[in-house]
Structures are given as C-alpha cells and as structure tokens.
Amino acid sequence: MGDYHFVYKDTEGASTQWDDIQRKLGNLPPKPPAFKPPPFTPSSDDQPKDQTWIDSKTSEELDELEDDLDDDRFLQEYRKKRLSEMQESAKVLRFGSVIPISGSDFVREVSQAPTDVWVVVILYKEGIPECGLLMQSIEELAVRYTATKFVKIISTDCIPNYPDQNVPTLLVYNNGAVKGNYVGLHSFGRRCTPEGVALVLCQSDPVLSDGHNRNEAIIKGVRQRFIEKVVADHEEDDDDSSSD
C-alpha cells in the first residue's frame, strides 16, 4: 500500500486543552490573538449618489458614469432631468436660419406666427447688390438669435409691383401686426453690419431673442457688439490711412 500522510490543521488561533495547560506552566509562549479583519469602509465610488453628487458632476461625466450606476431611482431621475433639458432646448432652438417663403405662405408663416415669436421679413430681389449685403447680416443674426424667426421673400411675391428701388426692405411682425418697417439699405448705416442691423431692430422693441437671456441682457449685448464693431472699424480706417 502507498504511504499516505494526512496533516490536520486546526482553525487559525485555536488551541488544545493540553496547550493551554502548558502555557499556564510557562512551557509555551502566549497564544497569539485571533485574526480580526479591519472594519469595512466604503470607497468614494460606493457613497450614496444624492442630489449634491449630481450637481457636482458635468454632463460629460454623468454620461460616462451612467452605465456604472446601479441605483434605479437615481437613473430614473437623471434620465427624466435630461429629457426635460432636451425638451426645453428643443423649444428654444426653433429656427436658426433664414426661411424662404412664397406669397401663399405669408399669412401662415408671418401673420399667424405664435404671439411670443417675433418675425423679421426681408423683401429682396435677386441680382441687386444691396439685397445681398443685407441678406448676409440677416443670415448671421438668424444663427445668433434662434428664438427670432427670420424669413425671406421676393418683394413682388409679397407686394405686387413693389418698386425695386425700395429693396431691400425689412418688415418686423409680432402677434400678427407690423411693428417695424425699414426701407432701403441706408436704414442700417453706412456699412450695414450685423451689429448695426441688430441695433436698429432692437431700438424700440425686443425683436431679437436667443431664448435664454432676458430682453435687457439681449439689448445690452447688441449695444456692446455695436460699440466694439464701430471701434474696430475706426481702428482699421486709421491703419489704412497711416499706411498710405
């Protein structure tokens, strides 16, 4: 038969009665204390994810952590919050470009626009340089002020026999009524910049809106941009004069 050996190993820290007697007589060293694991301390990743934790994170960080979160209630609240933000953003970013319309679209797109929407209509004709210059400014403002509706229509499609010498013309509508009427490029200053056009549009009413800032902040920003543009143009003229 094979030589089998079995070594019995008791639980760590256990002692026999004989060992206890020998320790009392001083024949064996004192029994070492039983192993006791350190108390469990949760890591920072295991801490409860409350509202304070949410507010301390950026949107990008929350997106990265979303797959690792196990708290169903937190996930539901987080997704609900994100959905609400997306819905509000969709309400604000309604436009963002100059919309071409025809004569048959005018009532629906302009006169019947929602009461909280300002509509800027540019009457133009292809091939007229002044129309192209104003259109550039209007296109830039449409991108900047997405809660204001900008539309363009060929002048004679809107008003039959409208004189070409009157284009470009800007009409401003709100709640179905005309609030402003600007005939010709000269209405917007010598250079017709987006800043100059914005200042003219906001002189009497808060026509321009980005959907986020209050009317006072929008008008203040328009004035600030206009001043900065005038100063920049003046410095450019001085540089040109000195180079001559």
UniProtKB/TrEMBL annotation:
Bias (Pro residues): 29-41
SUPFAM superfamilies found in the cross-reference section: Thioredoxin-like (SSF52833)
CDD domains, alphabetized: Phd_like_VIAF
One Pfam family in the UniProt entry: Phosducin
Record GO biological process: protein folding
Gene3D superfamilies tied to this protein: Glutaredoxin (3.40.30.10)
Disordered: annotated span: 17-62
Any one GO cellular component localisation term in the record: cytoplasm
Phosducin domain mapped to chain residues: 50-184
Membership in a protein family: Belongs to the phosducin family.
Name assigned to this protein: Phosducin domain-containing protein
Natural source organism: Phaseolus vulgaris (Kidney bean)
Organism lineage string: Eukaryota, Viridiplantae, Streptophyta, Embryophyta, Tracheophyta
